[in-house]
Amino acid sequence: MNNYIFVLLLFFVGVSCEKETEVAIPHSASQIVVSSILIPDKEIKVFVSQSIYMLETEQLPISNAEVSLFSNNQLLEILSLDTTGVYQSKKVKTQSGQNYSIKVRVNGFDEITASTQVPYSLPLDSIQLKTFIGTSDNGISLSSLDLFFTSGDKQLSYYQYNCHACTDSINVFGSVCVGEWFSYDAIILEEGDIKSKLFTNKLFNSTNIKLNLNFEDPTGFFFDSDTANYTLSAQIYSLSEDLYLYQKSLNAYAESTDNIWQVNNPPQIYSNIKNGIGIFASMAYSNVITQRVLDQTK
Amino acid sequence: MRIIIIMLIASLYLSGSAQTIGGYIIDKETGEKLIGANVYDRISKNGTATNAYGYYSLYIDTTNAILQISYIGYATEVFSHKLTKNTSFQLKSNTSIQEVVVIGKKAIEQRNEMSVAEIPMKQLKTLPMLAGEVDIIKAMQLMPGIRSGNEGQSGMFVRGGSHDQNLMLLDDVPLYYINHLGGFVSVFNPDAINSLKMYKGGFPARYGGRLASIMDVRMKDGNLKKRQSNITFGMISSKFQTEGPIKKDTASYMISGRRFMYDLFSRPITWLINDKHSKGYTFYDLNAKFNYKFSDKNRLFLSLYMGNDNILSKKKTKENGEKEQMSNQTKWGNHLLALRWNHVFNQRFIGNITANYTNYRYASEFKFLSNYENESKESSYLFSSGISDFCIKSDFELFFKNYTIRFGSNQVFHTFSPNRTYLKQEGYVNIDQNFNTQTYQALENSIYLENDISVGQYLGFNIGVRALSYAALQKQYNNLEPRILINFNIPHLFSIKASYARMQQYVHLLIYSGAGLPGDLWMPTTKEVPPQKSELISLGIAKSMLNQQLELSVEAYYKKMNDLIDYQDGASLSGNNTKNWQQLIETGGKGYSKGIELLLQKKQGKINGWLAYTLSRSTRQFEHINKGREYIYTYDATHDFSITSNYYFKDNLYFSASWVYTSGRAITLPNQQYQTLRLMPNNTNPNEVIAEPEFELVKISTYNEKNNIRMHAYHRLDLGLTYIKQKKKTERIWCFSIYNAYNRQNAYYYYTTSVAVKDENGNDTDVSEKKTYQRSLFPFIPSVSYSINF
After folding, report:
1. What CATH number matches the domain at B2-106, 3.40.640.10, 2.60.40.1120, 3.90.1150.10, 3.60.10.10?
2. Could you report the predicted ipTM of this complex, rounded to two decimals?
3. Among A117, B338, B501, B761, which has the highest number of CB atoms less than 10 A from its own CB?
């Protein structure tokens, strides 16, 4: 398909022309943008800014906002502005299971509110690696990684996996790392994209989850795959529902800006900010397994 | 229903002492049936027109009649002798349509139809060409209520409907994809076409299956008298056509083909300059029709259409004794086969039974072959998708005095194949298998009853009903589609026409990327995705003037559509994720469309042509798109105006021009931007540090309203000049044309980007500003084509 579009484009571009044009891009009221993602045991940071007209270039953060942090309707702290333009808590650190909400007041705008419940982190029970399961389109040997973990409950929960594999640093070129992972696992295909890192537990009857991932073996790029090793880290992030929807919309947005031909309805970024835009959400990630994996074919 | 039965009985009674004659109106030189020819009896003052098969049936008072038969582009004939019951007539063709013929009594005021767009083929062939090609879709887009999509698309948008809501029938068989060359030309080769007619509303019950329009295109049957051929050399394609009798007046054939020639040059040139890497694109069409007349009452017709577009890329390398060959091919096209049996039971009753097959297929294939030291390895990847229909269709017509009953049925077995992927690989891992194969099957049945009734000279009705059933994926839908059209003719003034039609559509189009690209996928109605529905009300007046030389119609319409589908915000058919297609779309959408159309048409004479204007508004509403708010449909056109004219200097020299003006398309451009946090993928080396989640600030562009901007208005002037030179045995035709004569840069798309501000010397500074640009496709394009008829 892309080939078709490319050839047609070549044909069209051959006869096409381009010029600057006057388009009356409509003005609409500027909105307050609030961005904050809470992580257990970390301070709370809130970015506050303002949306600007499309043809403007300079974007200034808002330094006169009053940002109040609440938990279960109790005021915990009024966040203070640090030197980087971020409103930050000094006393409070995020705790799993807690409800947090913020109120942001900026002169000339309606009061902005948002809330989130911080999820619990989930331990990865084990991982299992299989090497040389096939060959990728690039001719690189494929490996497969199974992640086993236990979902916290049978309610709908939201996750993102995060894996990375790097070879040992053995020469001046350093390591070769692989960040592109893909999966034909049903829970990933449910998201509609084999490279989506987001998923839910809705296809599982029990709380035991097995996730199968594939990746190009990093030793296949430069090193002799019979002798080289690599280290692999795998993480499961537990996401609040809002963060899941937000990340999903960001993925769709990135996809659409990469390819203008493939989108009919341009995506809007998900927001849970009342009277504004942005995100106030949370995630937990405490369990990380990092292990050195020796090539099992040797 | 009771009224209909009473009228039927009354008609039968009245016709007991009457004489009814029936037969075909035929081109004298070719034997081709003339569709829509007028037959008028000067004694009884009754008139009728031939149907879609060229057949007429007329009630006369006595056994004597003076029949006046007329058809645009043909000399009017008057027959005044004693008639037999089965009477066919022959008309002689004029070489041009500049000679005015007297048209019979069946004026626009008396036709029980409305919202019809019709261009006689003789007039269509005189229109300005696009790079040497007359395109019937582009010609239809000059009619009111029918707008084109983007520049360079054949997509048609009729009365606020989407382009998949048009049913394109070629000899009664649907074609699912009608574009070549990205929409530059359509699959309909005008050399092979006998007639075309499009219904935008007031749909007779015999038609159904789409919401917006029905386009009925009929292929030529083939010359029954003598062999005729022509060859055309054009800048887009070269064509040939040949037709003639297999057995004179009994059996004939028509074969027509055309081919895009670009690849014949591009492939060897790219092979030479790209180090044995050739690239090319081509398309072809092949139309064929055979007919055999067993007797005056039985005829058999076989229609065939094959068309394909093909993009091919091939590369060969040879290094250190290792040979490699890589090829990449993408092709798509339709195949159509129809076998029709036409039977005349008697002069008042005819029937047609058609068995047909239609198929649309898109395939993309990659092959890699390597050979080293006599060891060969092959890898190949094939992705294909498509739709195919098997259909049995029957249509019957029963003629009475001032009353025609049409009834029939249609059984369609759809097979939807949105995804078949085949992978073959020899190497580390040997693979040879199909995967991701999806096939859905559906059965769509319909029966219809249509009553065309004229009460005296002043009142007419077309009342009908279509009953439908559809079953697929363990879900069944049953529906009724009532249709009614009332025609009230105020003598010497005009006629007032009103119609109501309910339509259903059981096939859905998932658009890959913009309207009308070949990767678009047809999908079935399912439990989760119900059929699209519409209700259309039209009200209009029609008047013929200057002895029927001029026809004027003004119509207003209101259409409501339900259960429309569209992609969710940001969703697309990327890769092969067709399995989850139902999760990518929004269902339950509503559409509203209203407008006023004006058409002033002169179909013949030294100056002929038409003027069309549409004022309209079309919107959509989905629960989860645009925050549930109603928004302007992207192909909404507030104003759509066109003027088309031909001028005959002589019989063999004529000039044509058409000018179109359409309000710009509604598009979505971001109007605000902001920065927000994004959870980044972990890129730290696990050898060195344990990863923690990281965030970055990303820039987001957003919009206040879907389709918040209108592109600049589209307008274009096309000019054409045709010169015909008669030789002893041949006819030579030169056609010169200019597309976009004043080089209007119509926008294809807009984009906004940052550019550096220039200083006084014209050099870039560090300061940037945002500007909006447009890209246009087709500038001033002159062209010429040369045809030889022999």
Report:
1. 2.60.40.1120
2. 0.87
3. B501
